[in-house]
Specification:
The complex is a heterodimer of chains A (337) and B (249). With 337 residues, chain A is of the alpha+beta class. Chain B is α/β, with parallel strands linked by helices and 249 residues long. Chain B is 34% helix and 26% strand. Chain B contains nine helices and eleven strands. In chain B, a hairpin with a 2-residue loop joins β8 and β9. The radius of gyration of chain B is 21 Å and the shape is globular. The termini of chain B are far apart. In chain B, 45% of the residues are buried. Classes of the chains: A alpha+beta (337), B alpha/beta (249). At the A-B interface, β6, α10, α12 and β10 of A face α2, α6, β5, α7 and β6 of B. β10 of chain A pairs antiparallel with β5 of chain B.
């Protein structure tokens, strides 16, 4: 069991005092936030008594240092914290079934960013229980890693106590985003554009995996091509709409490379994501099978139209199946969207 | 590999492996190296079945990443079969690119064969170079499940089967299959092929109103039989020759 302790309006001194008091009482105390602590009660029952009793003792001890604490006890740290936050000062609350407790609560209790909350609301999801009922894989695929973590919290499957800082320091507010880049060096220089595009794919697959792991979509890509006997070639490409799909990244780079008449002999590359934003799922095409990606196909058709000219890349529609002349039976239109 | 592990850096081994995979993919295409479970899954998913007895001739359907040619004389039924395959490719939501240098694609016939015209892109290429450009773009895009190159009737053809040789390395790394429809097989380019031959004609008042045709792979004794009952009608599947013999006995 985990006991979450929330000391409301705690100053820096109040936070330190509360931490010292809790450490004197319990063996495992971690800091989640300013004035918010997580205490692992595993193994304390024989010495200190039942969790509800320990919760009361925590409140009493903290009162001695003028800290009005609320204590929530649950199997998961998140449920314990939510219970503590929704309990009055100097009160305790024991949650026996964390998932059941969280289910009727509004989605706002989950750590979701604003856009995702709006998107979930648009999908008709109002409570934590609604969100928890979604399949785990679909949530990860559609909304990214951040949402998948919130989903685990909603399902009472979190183990964030391990993430609490046990030295007593406050966790950083905005952890620095890691740099997403991939490098390749080739033994033999690549002289043809097609070879280069094929070779770049593995680097972009790596970028795509890194983006997927962080729940991000690339908005701007920078490529540096090391060339034999020439200055490195630097390209920068905006990816619109932002994506983490390897195929779309390859397509974007292919078009950038095709704008260059001469690439030289390329011996290495460095691809970096200069700008990224949280990945947003798309309703269509997310779970499409191979060769069933509408956007990819239309993008290729538009590329061909640019290359071949108007009236050459078309879609047909049967306007009148009973027409006597075959040319009147069908209508042709350019591929545009 | 053991040495790199000794160095205490798994990253070094991973980089070497990634570079080896890059070299293989550079030479043989992006999907040349796959994890076993992915390869098994894809083998089942990447077959394009037409839903006719043609699938028994082609060994379960046309596999993505492989070329196939339907070869036969004019009006034998090659296009009817190609349209059936296109409809099969669209069954799971796939897109089809129809490269049509002779500008002879008939949307009405396609519709009758079950093709969804909304998921079909027709490219009217003017010469072999444009066919290659369109074919390569379709096969590389990962958006198409099938690319069909209809070389058209030989008297109006702007592209021969031999001209398609540069597409072969492209199709090997593609999630799409390449289907070539031609009157004659290539002289220099050996594509796996299904030969389509007319069997008999049905005449009425001195005019041809229907015919039957067979499709067979050269090395196989299995033949898929089809009949066209009326002009403008879709080809109906009669089954394979073995099926008919079984029925007769």
């Amino acid at each position: 069991m985990i006991a979450a302790v929330v000391v409301r309006g705690a100053s820096e001194t109040g936070h330190s005092r509360a931490l010292i008091t809790l450490r004197a009482l319990l063996p495992h105390v971690g800091v989640i936030d300013a004035g918010t602590f997580a205490c692992d009660l595993a193994g304390t029952e024989r010495v200190l008594g039942a969790p509800s009793r320990i919760a009361r003792r925590i409140v009493e001890r903290l009162l001695r240092v003028d800290a009005h604490a609320s204590v929530g006890v649950a199997v998961t740290p998140f449920a314990a914290r939510v219970a503590a936050e929704r309990t009055g000062p100097c009160e305790t609350r024991l949650v026996t079934d964390a998932r059941e407790y969280l289910a009727p609560l509004p989605l706002e209790v989950l750590p979701l960013d604003e856009k995702l909350s709006e998107e979930l609301a648009l999908l008709g999801l109002r409570t934590v229980g609604d969100f928890a009922a979604l399949p785990r894989g679909a949530v990860f695929e559609r909304f990214g890693r951040g949402a998948a973590r919130a989903h685990a919290l909603a399902r009472a499957e979190d183990d964030s106590y391990r993430g609490a800082d046990h030295r007593g320091a406050l966790p950083p507010e905005n952890p620095p985003r890691r740099r997403i880049c991939a490098r390749r060096l080739w033994e033999e220089p690549l002289a043809s554009r097609d070879q280069l595009i094929f070779a770049l794919r593995s680097a972009l697959d790596e970028i795509s995996s890194a983006l997927a792991a962080d729940g991000l979509a690339a908005l701007r890509l920078a490529v540096k091509l090391e060339r034999e006997g020439a200055e490195p070639l630097r390209l920068e490409r905006a990816v619109l709409p932002p994506t983490r799909e390897s195929a779309a990244l390859v397509r974007s780079l292919r078009w950038a490379l095709e704008e260059r008449a001469h690439l030289g002999r390329v011996i290495g590359c460095a691809v970096e994501v200069r700008e990224a934003e949280p990945a947003r799922g798309r309703q269509i095409g997310l779970f499409a099978a191979d060769g069933a990606r509408w956007e990819e196909a239309i993008a290729s058709a538009r590329y061909l139209r640019e290359k071949l000219g108007a009236g050459r890349v078309l879609r047909a529609r049967v306007a009148n199946a009973d027409a006597r002349l075959p040319e009147r039976a069908a209508e042709w239109k350019e591929v545009s969207s | 590999m053991a040495e790199t592990v000794k160095k205490g850096s798994a990253q070094v081994g991973a980089t070497a492996l990634a570079e080896a995979i890059t070299r293989i993919e550079t030479r043989y295409g992006t999907r040349a190296v796959l994890r076993g479970d992915v390869a098994e899954r894809q083998d089942g998913e990447r077959r394009i079945a037409s839903g006719t007895s043609l699938d028994r001739v082609t060994g379960g359907g046309i596999r993505a990443g492989e070329p196939l040619a339907f070869v036969g004389p004019v009006t034998a039924g090659k296009l009817a079969l190609a349209l059936r395959v296109a409809a099969g490719a669209q069954r799971d939501g796939g897109m089809v690119a129809w490269i049509d240098p002779s500008a002879s694609f008939d949307p009405l016939a396609a519709l009758r064969a079950g093709v969804d015209l909304d998921r079909l892109v027709v490219v009217r290429a003017r010469d072999a170079d444009e066919v290659l450009l369109a074919g390569a773009a379709a096969l590389r895009s990962e958006g198409f499940r099938l690319a069909v190159v209809d070389t058209g009737p030989s008297f109006a053809s702007r592209c021969a089967v031999d001209d398609l040789a540069p597409l072969l390395p492209v199709v090997r790394g593609s999630p799409a299959a390449l289907l070539v429809v031609a009157e004659e097989r290539g002289r220099r380019l050996a594509l796996p092929l299904v030969r389509v031959e007319p069997l008999g004609w049905r005449e009425r008042f001195g005019r041809t109103v229907g015919w039957s045709f067979a499709a067979a792979a050269p090395a196989s004794r299995e033949r898929a039989l089809f009949a066209v009952a009326a002009l403008g009608a879709d080809a109906s599947d009669l089954g394979t020759r073995a099926d008919l013999l079984e029925l007769a006995s």
